[in-house]
Structures are given as C-alpha cells and as structure tokens.
C-alpha cells in the first residue's frame, strides 16, 4: 500500500539537527506500526502533487504553522485537492492543520480558539465507535500544539471524540475521511522544544503547564497510528 503524505510545513531550522524534518516523523511512526506501507511525500507548499490521484491508495494532510484561513496560493490549491479527494471518496486523514482544513473546505469552521493555546497531552473521550478503532478503548492521549481549532463540524461529519479544551477533536465523514487535532507522529521532546521556542508567545502560565504535562503524561502515539493503518487498509480491502 502506498500512502501520500501531503506535507504542509517543515521543522524549524533550529530543531532539525535534533529531531529531523516533518516527513521523518511520519516515516518513523508508519514504519513502527506497519513497515510494509510505502510513503510518498508531496511538499504541497512547493506545489508538488501526485501526477495521478490514483497513484496512492490514500492521503494524509500534516500539521502546519500556517492557518487554514490564510490567503495564500498553496492553501487555496490544497483546498481544491481536498474537494477532489472527497468527491472521489478517496481515503483521507487530516492531522492538526489538515483536520482544520478538511473541516473548513467541507462546510465547517476553523478559527483561533477562545481558549487560546493548547500544548501538551490531551485526553480524547469517545462519543462514537468506528470499524477501525478498537471498541474496548474509551480514551487515548495525543500531543497537541495549536491555537486554532475546528469550531463547527461540516454538515456531513460525525463527531468521534472531544477533549476538555478541544470539543471537536476527532471526526469522520462517511467512511473515507478520518480527522483529528492531535499529533501521533510527534514526540514529547519535540513538542517541548517547540514550546520552548515559542515561550514568549505562549506566556509563562501556558508554558509551565505544558512542561509539567509533557513530563508527566505519555501519548498513545502507536495506538492511533495503528488506527490510521486500519482506516487505510479497511478502505483498500473494500475495493474503494
């Protein structure tokens, strides 16, 4: 199976030597949970897309420091591509920025949250069970690092899970879109280093709470990454 990673950002230059680049996070976590999956990286910020949409069995839109409401050409083009994927019912996962972009494109809303920055592990409490999510799991933790969030679901979407600070933390649309705010591909060390770089922007209270959270809690990265694989494989096995 080949999955296309629609890359919407890069790791800050100051952190690349320690953590690698954004695509490295996805290569690591997919290899950890299913080394048979091949990833194809498309840097959509640079206008790089698959020559044929059927080149990959599914696609994943990454997180980004950009906002989905930014009036820039590459975001406008990515929105058109999301519409095309949706019309074809091509399996699509959205992560953070990708989660917000899918919601906005398909009739929902994403904007700066009134609650401000959310940094650290967030506990997901599930409202719905899905075929690719184990039914015996009532909650998971995922790493967050964002100020924007989805504030209104698309009309066709079903809410899957919420967190205390992010009411629309995970949703699906029919069986071909799976979208969430958290980052199974990130490590606590990376989120901590990013928070430290943004310390003045975050403010002392948010930063100290994030440091405490990241030291005491552990994200369920592999659990959710396995859900990614289950999602993509379930669609492929159906012949969709």
Overview of the molecule:
- The protein is of the alpha/beta class.
- The chain is 37% helix and 25% strand.
- It contains eight helices and eleven strands.
- The strands form two sheets. A nine-stranded mixed sheet has the order 2-1-3-4-11-10-9-6-7, with helices on both faces. A two-stranded antiparallel sheet has the order 5-8.
- β10 and β11 form a beta hairpin.
- α2 crosses α8 and α5 runs antiparallel to α7.
- It is globular, with a radius of gyration of 17 Å.
- The mean pLDDT is 94.
In summary, what is this structure?
The chain has 240 residues and is an alpha/beta fold. The protein is 37% helix and 25% strand.
List keywords for this structure.
single chain, alpha/beta, 8 helices, 11 strands
Topology:
Elements: E1 2-7, H1 13-19, H2 22-33, E2 38-43, E3 58-61, H3 73-88, E4 92-95, H4 97-105, E5 109-112, E6 118-126, E7 139-146, E8 148-152, E9 157-162, E10 170-173, E11 177-180, H5 188-197, H6 199-202, H7 204-216, H8 221-237
> Span between N and C termini?
13 Å
Which structural class fits the helix and strand makeup? alpha/beta
Residue fraction in strands: 25-35%
Specify the number of helices: 8
Strand arrangement across the biggest beta sheet = 2-1-3-4-11-10-9-6-7
Which oligomeric state applies? single chain
The low-confidence runs, each spanning 5 or more residues with pLDDT under 50, are none
Strand tally, please? 11
Shape designation: globular
Q: The biggest beta sheet, please? A: 9 strands, mixed
Rg, nearest Å: 17 Å
Give the overall average pLDDT.
Answer: 94
The topology string of helices and strands comes to EHHEEHEHEEEEEEEHHHH
Helix content: 25-40%
